Fold these 2 entries.
Entry 1:
Amino acid sequence: MEFKKGDIYGTHRVLEPKGVLPQPADKLDNTMEIYDNEVLIDVQTLNIDSASFTEIEKRAGGDVEEIKKIIMNIVETTGKHKNPWTGSGGMLIGKVAAIGPNFKGDLRVGDKIATLVSLSLTPLKIEEIKEVRPEIDQVDVKGQAILFQSGLYGILPKDMPKELALSVLDVAGAPAQTAKICKPGDTVVVMGGGGKSGILCCWQAKRQVGVNGKVICVDGFKKSINRAMSVKCADEYLVVNATDAVAMYNEIMEVTEGELADVVINVVNIPNTEMASILACKDNGLVYFFSMATSFTKAALGAEGVGKDVNMLIGNGYTKGHANVALQVLRDDERIMKLFAELYA
Amino acid sequence: MEFKKGDIYGTHRVLEPKGVLPQPADKLDNTMEIYDNEVLIDVQTLNIDSASFTEIEKRAGGDVEEIKKIIMNIVETTGKHKNPWTGSGGMLIGKVAAIGPNFKGDLRVGDKIATLVSLSLTPLKIEEIKEVRPEIDQVDVKGQAILFQSGLYGILPKDMPKELALSVLDVAGAPAQTAKICKPGDTVVVMGGGGKSGILCCWQAKRQVGVNGKVICVDGFKKSINRAMSVKCADEYLVVNATDAVAMYNEIMEVTEGELADVVINVVNIPNTEMASILACKDNGLVYFFSMATSFTKAALGAEGVGKDVNMLIGNGYTKGHANVALQVLRDDERIMKLFAELYA
């Protein structure tokens, strides 16, 4: 069998307009014959992005048959599921059906995977929509999809429920990046430390900094801090409002005896927490912004305004092996496995 | 003489509302008696932020006396120059009149300095407005101001015209950060490399990467590339539209023989250049976003969408000694000194 040579980003599948990447493209080639570096997936379930599903449901007046028609129409017209009203997609769950000879990765035919790249850039063909589950934005289908060489995926593990694994894969980048940036002996502040992503980051940070380091879990809500304390993922726990920069500075100054943090990880899901992150960090330290509510200009001008020589990183949802790192946290700590199973599965 | 102890960020000067930083504060204490870590400045000129000056000029119907009244009123009411309609300030030029005994820095009484922090957080008292120069947004005053311990400044050098020095100090963070992140042997792409900041970054990058490295200056305009070529600040020069990610990827692939860049520095002043920066960078490379037009979410989701494991830094306008680094470029290269003198002085 002969294969055509594919581009790693999938630009060979772009029909209109020519020369752009698959995500911004209007129309993709969804022929289900793989190129040399592609993966063919038998799709079982589409996890439609929440904003997108809500929009489709509204247009359909809540009618399930109408929802099916709208989704079929989007995919038939564009070769992918990119909601034209919201611009968003979602992700999918399926089984690996075929792997191109030049695809680089640890996949095998028959593996059950979740794609961790958006449906808005994934070539998709739907034969039939079997079931719509509006309460969880899921659609069971008979269909096929293509994963590009650059496309991220997570192999669904056999040792935990699917829903639990998915809830962790969703935020897998944060703990994996935490592992890369924290060094033994570091003092690490995790802002928003009581949330899903925050608990994983605290746990991973504690593993990296070791006995000579210190992990400080900060959250705006007592309830979240109690949750973090129940799994013992940090050394110190503080309830502080992350939009109050001066309060954060004073609290972190006190708990670090005037030293401040080597690393500040921000996973707070509300705006205006940039300055508190900057002030909690010592000179030449590292602030890692993982929250999508982060404003680039507030961070850049904020650090300059207070003359703070800190390195500020934009959270990248991907780093090599991120799915494994995140799932391993649950395997290594049954308290977190149990807590997440209660909360998300 | 006894001094009261000041906070490094100047929160001791905040009158309303209590507990916030000087920048967001509504009212500062502008008593011109310094605390132990403050600097007193005899102010000569206010460089009003361009957006702010335009707004004030409009409100005054272009009348100079009315402009004076509006500025005086802002400063008398709030103790600083933070334009209530734009939220912005500007910077000032003046002479150091007194230095608190606990201020840490290289200042001496009599030094002529430009403050590199915003007027929107600088305690200011104006006795008299002497002259308004609307064509360059400048206001000459008799007055005094306070610099906090955290406040940035640049000592105006004696070996070049004031306007030339100011134009460089304005973007001093970019070349100084470039010096920190580029290593010998690196391949560096500077996007927007033909502009003021871009030329300084190219030059500094070339100095860092040495003979085994390569600096690629990319700009969207032939005119800017010609300017960069005239001062020989790079090894390669390319005209590429930075909003066209695929074109950028192809061009950088070609010029690096498929290796891509170790470091990508983005100083392009238009939106939607995040993806081109990410694609130009190799895995585990570093993308440095210095443009205020950068979108945090476009960068974060962009890298994830193409599965690219790159480190992305938010440009911090400040790093230790940044003013010296930037001014030194002009001293070390008379071609750049001459070009900038023509363009900006």
Note: The mean pLDDT of chain A is 94.
Entry 2:
Amino acid sequence: MYLRDLKGKEKDLLGKEITLHGWVKNHRPQKDFGFITFSDGTQFNSLQLVYDKENVHFKELSSLRVGSSILVSGTFQESSGAGQDYEVVIKDFTLLGDCPEDYPLQPKKHTPEFLRSIGYLRPRANLFQAVFRIRSVAAMAIHTYFQNQGYIYTHTPLITTADCEGEDQMFKVTTFDMSNVPMSEGVVDYSKDLFHKPAFITGSGQLQGEAFAMAFSRIYTFGPTFRTENSNTKTHANEFWMIEPEIAFCDLENLMNIEEEMLKFVVSYVLELASDEILFLDKFQEQGLKKKLEDLVSSQFTRVTHEEVITILKNANVEFEFTPEYGEDIAKEHERFITEYFHGPVFITDWPKDIKAWYMKVNPDGKTVAAVDLEIPGAGELMGGSQREEDYDKLIARIDEMNVDKESIDWYCNLRKFGTCVHSGFGMGFERLLIYLTGVENIRDVIPFPRTPGSCEF
Amino acid sequence: MYLRDLKGKEKDLLGKEITLHGWVKNHRPQKDFGFITFSDGTQFNSLQLVYDKENVHFKELSSLRVGSSILVSGTFQESSGAGQDYEVVIKDFTLLGDCPEDYPLQPKKHTPEFLRSIGYLRPRANLFQAVFRIRSVAAMAIHTYFQNQGYIYTHTPLITTADCEGEDQMFKVTTFDMSNVPMSEGVVDYSKDLFHKPAFITGSGQLQGEAFAMAFSRIYTFGPTFRTENSNTKTHANEFWMIEPEIAFCDLENLMNIEEEMLKFVVSYVLELASDEILFLDKFQEQGLKKKLEDLVSSQFTRVTHEEVITILKNANVEFEFTPEYGEDIAKEHERFITEYFHGPVFITDWPKDIKAWYMKVNPDGKTVAAVDLEIPGAGELMGGSQREEDYDKLIARIDEMNVDKESIDWYCNLRKFGTCVHSGFGMGFERLLIYLTGVENIRDVIPFPRTPGSCEF
């Protein structure tokens, strides 16, 4: 059986014999007995196995090495030792897969850099057992929230010729032999490529998501997205997962309601279904993590305009590195100040139109757009959303004003011709959420196999 | 409110005024009154709106065009007409977004080819309202099954340098200017590309999935995969979604148990949560669809070896186009015969090793591998799985025998050095499942925005 199947049945199993398969996480062999920290990875907490000299396998058990896979049968009982409630007294034992003395993942403190270098083994380490389990639970939380509300999960395409993030940030995809790209009169002859035109892997599913929102009212995407950014920071990866809901008949106020409700649901879900993992991370990764998450669930999110934020920043008795200015973007230090100022999450709305995207709805003032960023204490911007321009003529004017290539998105613009309506959507970077949920600082450590400049391992 | 919010509250709402926003799907204006088929896409069935001459908006209502978005308030009541239980008598009305007379999606029969050409509008058509809603429900069914069983949802990387399907079937990804690829001594200088080496978008997450199974015992992937196949058939697309579970301490028999249980769960879930959609498809797409699905849930899947299948085919009194032979692959006509022969789904096991992949475990006979294909009546092969070779030396020998590039997968082979164990996994093409669930014949019609050779629209 798997460890997870024990959960909740401990009392019934007392004194009974059970059979388990899994791995030796730690081993303390003594002269006359020994303790094995055992796990099969199906729950966060490990189980203690004990054996003594009377066991016919004593010699073999004593020499068991960390990392080995084993099959054991034994009696499930209450443990008299500190640190665990239950243990198994081994009766029968088989070594399934040995592990050499120089196994890289010994039970001691390793640097994150070293663990990244053995990325195919690191999910076995406690930290990553917690992180990737939370990744799975949080993903399910997101699906559960949106499905419960009747949103349609939409698989927008990865390969695309249209993208709202701009082509210069996108990877090209091709079937060409790169050493012999077919040219015709000095330009690449894309008629010979599989799609007969230049193609990319997408940075966003928003445009196609809007088409589906115009059919189902409420949809969400949840899939991988890509950016070519050549940036080696703690928060950038070239491949990451995004959630992008699009909602018809929804204005900016409603959008904020949805963002707030969704985030609180996801955090509550993780607190409930990954409680052991959160306790571990609270102890070893970010002190106060559990309280931080609980506070978020019970907090009231503030709503404030970009202009008000700048006024608050200007009036603050603080020497900022970057001077806050009306009409300009705000820096990380400003985000931090604002969430501290309001003691909680803050929706900043109505941004200067010149620093935001072409598809956002311009407000009646002609200077700002109906956009909203959600700033979270200790995490910065977690979601970015906006009301989309639903008027065909205004959208085309914006596209021309901002020199966006119209040709590949004519169908997108046409959505405004056929039963257009007020609609809004937002994007949430899944890894950014995970950094917040786990207290892990580097995006490389919340992605199973991260892809960053110069690094595409495993 | 959204239509979906009415569900189950109809009796309470009788005689009350409700406000709805959505689209005109059809309109039958008469001299003194009119009927509007209305939907916001949040449930499959539409709602009838009625109005008459007394309405102050009568003139405007009478000229409403199909495809327009509207805001209506009115009284919810039982309908005396045939075809629906309830209707709304319009009181107040606002036209939100007009729709021109030449709107391409008129309420009449369209060819699939035409609908593909307006792929950004087709989700509004009844067929695609059903299909893409089932796509969402089936995706949630898969997540629900695996999460309930404690599997860890693992986001394996899309960009990769290692792939179990072979590089010739993979798209290259690059940041290079395609008209000016940097060369050095006659070969592409990949040190100048973002990852400093050739990179691809993946055809499978299996290899990385196995690394996670060796840490969590039970994992699944669910994400997009890609093949460059230049094949224009009903069943091929260059981008599709796959589910790939990997399970440690699991042999082929157990794998079949899991496949059978999972499929029955997913089909039951869809029958329950998409009952309106299944009824529609049963009527207009595949007669007997509902019974076909119900039969699957109650059926016992047969388990038979490849050798036994060949014997059955050879003894059959049937003139096959392709002669069945021991040691060779079977054709679609054979698959069809076998599922008919056993009156239900059939697991075919123990395939000739020469026609299967390098990572599959070779059976003691030295001639076959512990692989299994699941054949479904009317759908052909739905899942393909195998026990993976868990012995390091045997795996390396197979890799050498089959001329697989060892260098990029050394880490994968190393998994066998550090606590190896019997493990198995399978892959299920999500679109193949959807074709089976919906009765739709062409893969292009179960993918929101399909990518096929020469076609990368929207």
Note: DSSP finds 13 helices and 18 strands in chain A.
